[in-house]
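Take a specimen:
=====
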Amino acid sequence: MKKKAKLRAVENIAKYIFTICAVIAIFAVCSITAYMIAKGTTAFTKVGVLELLFGSTWKPTAEEPSYGILYIILTSIVGTGISVLIGVPIGLLTAVFLTEVSNKKLAMIVQPAVELLAAIPSVIYGLFGLMILNPLMYKLEKIIFADSENHQFTGGSNLISAVIVLAVMILPTVVNVSASSIRAVSKDIRAASLALGASRIQTIFKVTIPAAKSGIMTGAVLGIGRALGEAMAINMVAGGTVNIPLPFNSVRFLTTQLVSEMGYAEGLHRQVLFTVGLVLYVFIMAVNLILQKIRKGATLDE
């Protein structure tokens, strides 16, 4: 009886602890949401929704200031989208290699290398892009636009550099989550596929990956969140100019906009930057909600 009473007491205490943690998490999300809405909507009434979200001119310190963030929004969408299109397939194929193709010795070498990528600080990726990637992009830029008189050279600090850095940065997240999901697939499913005459490659791509798609989707969501929220590395390689997101243009993302100007912004300029933060927050929440629905659909299909 005493043991049962102790077990019940422990279970009740654990239940209360879990409930408190859940309440704290919910409170934190609600608090951040309320704060961003309160701070970020002020500029809409002063500048105007259309001018702010669809204006293409950003001159906050001019005599007649303009606060259009359309190009900044488009840059974040285009840059994140392309980096995910590059990083997720590479990460998934790397996970397949680690779990289904390579031998244990080789996997023991590749896996720590992938995990090391996750441990590298963002500023190191930025330095890599600044010292190695940007000079290469500048050489490519000079070759492509050698005969162009109107092109403004950026020294290699452009959208392509930012996309490559982002794609590399999301790799460890996608690889680790995808590999864990693939390993969780039952061996009986693989054996059944092979027994029915499917080849190893067919089994991987038509049986194993579809069975693990819920976890793979989770890795993609985390990768998108990492790409959308990155600031330091992108600030070092993208150039920092508010521009239309073309490959060789110097560009500015939503995150780098906050990093670049929040330190000295005042008055309406500062309020608009909070609106930029609100737009970024809405993007991240929308992407998470959409992909969660897709993931739930994938789980139901399984």
